[in-house]
């Protein structure tokens, strides 16, 4: 079991890594069994995530998009984990999970629509069990536990994959969720995307723990620290956790050690709190380039394919954003319609009064 | 028909609904084995098993947050918070998620849940056990807030809350949990959420109250009647959404308005009700619409609480002032 082999409290062999930063396999025995076509599709999502992310940042800088939370550098932590679940499993995001969303099936058009400032973006395809973006920090984990409690009670075969950032581990609700998940033995896999910074706060100031994964021990559940920029390691740890959850053996905490190469959001300026050398050092551990090299070495991908794919995605992302940009303002009903199954009389009155104003005075 | 106290009406309703709907689960601190510190869930675990009525770790955000997940995933959770004063750690979930999930997911996920909690003063309790914080919840979009005042209403409103597709905060006036009994029908019935009850009709003054205050007002009304003052007493029953129509119609008839509540005065529910009266019955008013409320203080410990709790004598005093205005 990986959680035993890579005990987060051990000093040596603490972090699971399968693919090193040059894209070479560290230990053949650890390589997870992923079909070739799935490997390629995982890479493609990471690539699309990277391109869509880079472009979102550009659009924002051009004043064409609202505040945006960039993902660059965290693609492996996201795709590696979500790819280890089934379509029938749940995804409970925080707010920085672009590549996970795309892999799960939230359309890029709707993701963009959301960050463009239109709640319509939070519409998910019927067969995609994904919760909306959670802006409050850490509180979404309790929903993940509740989803799992309901699965247990109703005898459903579902696993719940939830994300939180390193900053979120300081929140009380992180601890409540871990405690509940242990007590109620829920099929929950919690992935901490430890991207080293919670806005300007480094992980070393967030906690005195050597690892975030070891916090699992306090709740009597397995925990493991993995190289979050190594898609194979993230996949292997998550796959094992998912299997345990599906077998009724309860929750797992995974710390994916990764790095946010960009700012916290487009309103943030990371240059005032972190050094260029640190960013450069982490750039060398880029999850995308190492996975690409691995696939090329395996003969599953080529430079030429890569270039063509990038071109195709560039086109797709441009077109998608154009469409979103043309979506206009939301109609009046839209801001009233979704609060209750049936609009209470007081709300109806507010809506009708405003509608009358628009009719009489023109919008 | 059986004579029941308020707490018996809750236990009876939960049992009846859990029997009819196996999606209902109830849980919280001491809710399972003990049946809740007030025994509202007594016998439910024995009858329905530990999967449907269970104890949770002592953590309000965990309780409400997991209820959110359960409601999304096909259950109808009825979490209990031991005292409303302990709700604040769970308030993050209520304000941040419970009231917003339907809107955030564009109607995909709705939360058919009922959050039960005892509230209010007058039981000689410790700190954080006596607050009336209904307005904190009523201020949030996406949530309904209900407060019953009699066993009959408790059953009808709780049944309606359980059947409601939206989240309902069900606040129980603990001071009258066992204060009196009333005939409660065995068969299922509902009382619509959002409709006030005219407890008695009158012509000189409208008084609006809810929860434990309804009984105090009733006592005052008896005195006032002996003095020849005819009071129309309205039990608000639902704090959000408010039944404006019943209040406005009544004040248009009586020309005077008094709201009595245990919650503190400033920014309290009385201010909202007076606004409603001003907007809907301004030209009918013969005296300024008035509120008799708790003070803007932390509810005192029992030796000082008698100053805070509103007595019938004080209600009659305020009512007379309005008549003489």
UniProtKB/TrEMBL annotation, chain A:
Residues 43-326 form the Dehydrogenase E1 component domain. SUPFAM superfamilies: Thiamin diphosphate-binding fold (THDP-binding). This is Pyruvate dehydrogenase E1 component subunit alpha. It catalyses: N(6)-[(R)-lipoyl]-L-lysyl-[protein] + pyruvate + H(+) = N(6)-[(R)-S(8)-acetyldihydrolipoyl]-L-lysyl-[protein] + CO2. It comes from the Bacteria. The lineage of its organism: Bacteria, Bacillati, Mycoplasmatota, Mollicutes, Haloplasmatales. GO terms for molecular function: pyruvate dehydrogenase (acetyl-transferring) activity. One of its GO terms (biological process) is branched-chain amino acid catabolic process. The pyruvate dehydrogenase complex catalyzes the overall conversion of pyruvate to acetyl-CoA and CO(2). It contains multiple copies of three enzymatic components: pyruvate dehydrogenase (E1), dihydrolipoamide acetyltransferase (E2) and lipoamide dehydrogenase (E3). Pfam families: E1_dh. Signal peptide: none annotated. InterPro entries: Alpha-ketoacid_DH_E1_comp (IPR050771), DH_E1 (IPR001017), PdhA/BkdA (IPR017596), THDP-binding (IPR029061). Its cofactor is thiamine diphosphate. It is an enzyme of class 1 (oxidoreductase). Gene3D superfamilies: 3.40.50.970. The keyword Oxidoreductase applies. Keywords: Oxidoreductase, Pyruvate, Thiamine pyrophosphate. Heterodimer of an alpha and a beta chain. Its EC number is 1.2.4.1.
From TrEMBL, chain B:
One of its GO terms (molecular function) is pyruvate dehydrogenase (acetyl-transferring) activity. It comes from Haloplasma contractile SSD-17B. Keywords: Oxidoreductase, Pyruvate, Thiamine pyrophosphate. This is Pyruvate dehydrogenase beta subunit protein. Gene3D superfamilies: 3.40.50.920, 3.40.50.970. Residues 4-179 form the Transketolase-like pyrimidine-binding domain. Its EC number is 1.2.4.1. The gene is pdhB. The keyword Oxidoreductase applies. InterPro entries: THDP-binding, Transketo_C/PFOR_II, Transketolase-like_Pyr-bd, Transketolase_C. The keyword Oxidoreductase applies. Its cofactor is thiamine diphosphate.
């Amino acid at each position: 079991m990986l959680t035993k082999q890579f005990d987060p409290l051990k000093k040596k062999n603490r972090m699971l890594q399968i693919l090193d930063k040059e894209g070479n396999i560290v230990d053949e025995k650890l390589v997870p069994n992923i079909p070739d076509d799935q490997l390629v599709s995982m890479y493609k999502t990471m690539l699309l995530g990277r391109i869509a992310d880079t472009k979102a940042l550009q659009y924002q800088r051009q004043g064409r998009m609202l505040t945006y939370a960039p993902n660059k550098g965290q693609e492996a932590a996201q795709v590696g984990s979500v790819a280890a679940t089934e379509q029938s499993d749940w995804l409970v995001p925080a707010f920085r999970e672009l590549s996970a969303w795309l892999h799960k099936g939230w359309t890029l058009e709707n993701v963009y629509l959301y960050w463009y400032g239109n709640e319509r973006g939070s519409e998910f395809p019927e067969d995609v069990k994904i919760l909306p973006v959670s802006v409050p920090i850490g509180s979404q984990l309790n929903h993940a536990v509740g989803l799992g409690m309901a699965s247990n009670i109703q005898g459903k075969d579902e696993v719940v994959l939830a994300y939180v950032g390193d900053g979120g581990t300081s929140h009380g609700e992180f601890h409540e969720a871990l405690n509940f998940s242990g007590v109620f033995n829920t099929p929950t896999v919690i992935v901490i995307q430890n991207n080293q910074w919670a806005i300007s706060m480094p992980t070393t100031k967030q906690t005195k723990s050597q690892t975030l994964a070891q916090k699992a021990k306090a709740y009597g559940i397995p925990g493991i620290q993995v190289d979050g920029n190594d898609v194979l390691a993230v996949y292997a740890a998550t796959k094992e956790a998912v299997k345990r959850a599906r077998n009724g053996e309860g929750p797992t905490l995974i710390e994916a050690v990764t790095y946010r190469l960009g700012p916290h959001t487009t309103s943030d300026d990371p240059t005032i709190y972190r050094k260029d050398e640190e960013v450069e050092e982490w750039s060398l551990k880029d999850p995308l380039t190492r996975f690409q090299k691995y696939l090329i070495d395996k003969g599953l991908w080529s430079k030429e394919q890569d270039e063509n794919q990038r071109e195709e995605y560039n086109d797709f992302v441009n077109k998608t954003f154009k469409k979103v940009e043309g979506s206009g303002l939301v109609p009046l009903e839209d801001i009233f319609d979704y609060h209750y199954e049936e609009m209470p009389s007081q709300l109806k009155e507010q809506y009708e009064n405003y509608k009358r104003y628009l009719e009489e005075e023109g919008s | 028909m059986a004579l029941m106290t308020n707490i018996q009406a809750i236990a009876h309703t939960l049992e009846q609904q859990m029997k009819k709907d196996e999606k209902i689960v109830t849980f919280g601190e001491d809710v399972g084995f003990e049946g809740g510190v007030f025994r509202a869930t007594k016998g439910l675990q024995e009858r329905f098993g530990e999967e449907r009525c269970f104890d949770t770790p002592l953590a309000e955000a965990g309780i409400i947050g997991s209820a959110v997940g359960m409601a999304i995933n096909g259950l109808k959770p009825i979490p209990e918070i031991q005292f409303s004063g302990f709700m604040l750690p769970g308030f993050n979930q209520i304000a941040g998620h419970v009231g917003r999930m339907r809107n955030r997911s564009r109607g995909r996920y709705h939360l058919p849940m009922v959050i039960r909690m005892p509230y209010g003063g007058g039981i000689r309790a410790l700190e954080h056990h006596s607050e009336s914080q209904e307005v904190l919840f009523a201020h949030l979009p996406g949530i309904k807030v209900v407060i019953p005042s009699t066993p009959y209403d408790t059953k009808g409103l709780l049944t309606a809350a359980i059947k409601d597709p939206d989240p309902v905060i069900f606040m129980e006036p603990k001071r009258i949990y066992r204060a009196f009994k009333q005939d409660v029908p065995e068969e299922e019935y509902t009382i619509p959420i959002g409709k006030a009850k005219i407890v008695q009709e009158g012509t000189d003054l409208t008084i609006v109250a809810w929860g434990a205050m309804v009984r105090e007002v009733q006592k005052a009304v008896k005195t006032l009647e002996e003095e020849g003052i005819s009071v129309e007493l309205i039990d608000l029953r639902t704090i959000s959404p408010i039944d404006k129509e019943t209040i406005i119609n009544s004040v248009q008839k009586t020309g005077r308005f008094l709201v009595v509540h245990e919650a503190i005065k400033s920014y309290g529910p009385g201010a909202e009700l007076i606004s409603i009266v001003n907007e809907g019955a301004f030209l009918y008013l013969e005296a300024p619409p008035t509120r008799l409320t708790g003070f803007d203080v932390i509810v005192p410990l029992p030796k000082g609480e008698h100053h805070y709790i509103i007595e019938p004598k004080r209600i009659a005093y305020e009512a007379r002032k309005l008549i003489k205005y």
